[in-house]
């Protein structure tokens, strides 16, 4: 997909285009018009809540929650519209990749596994995940998007950087859907815990609280989560909070105390300590440059 205006264009090459769109004060019922090019794959990351999407090649109108995404293939050029119903911010990042680039990258003729991956992409099997809902972005996906948005070099270095990050995003997507195939029959403890954290990390939660709410022993929570995701529950919660804080800190209209509360910290000093540990500077220093 590409926005009809080049506003927010982050990167463009023969095979790849990346657009960052943010409409802070959309008029009620106003729509952003998008076009999906012929024979292309589109990665669309929805970074604000309650975004409606309607495409002329789909009979369904989608309503996306914040931090959901889709990987969509279009064989022919098609149009789509995005809008909100309540004058909310419309913010998304889209990556468009042409078919030949993906074909060469996956090399479907080299193995049946690779051929199946490309077939699933073409059939748009990477749009919906568990219970027919669009998948949610993982922490790693958030980190990659932040890196793509903030990368400042141009030319060959930027092209190599972008291509490496796109490959990593695709690997994360394939892993997420492979995990789905396993948990559809019997959701594992680590998946249940991760899903709960993804939806509640902004609250003041701990492993003990998760254990009480889910009925899972807190020692089992800690052990299985770390075995699956190679990080502790508390580290994962902190990572999500810091990603949210870094995005909010650039808005000087939001007080540091408000950001702390929004990110799940009851006390500002605890938030400041965690922020400095993560980024090497205090929230005030990062905000003031």
UniProtKB/TrEMBL annotation:
GO molecular function: DNA-binding transcription factor activity; sequence-specific DNA binding
Alphabetically ordered keywords of this record: DNA-binding, Transcription, Transcription regulation
Boundaries of every HTH araC/xylS-type domain copy: 191-289
Stored InterPro entries: Homeodomain-like_sf, HTH_AraC, HTH_AraC-typ_CS, PchR_regulatory_protein, Tscrpt_reg_AraC-type_HTH
Classification via Pfam families: HTH_18
Protein known as: AraC-type DNA-binding protein
Source organism (scientific name): Chryseobacterium shigense
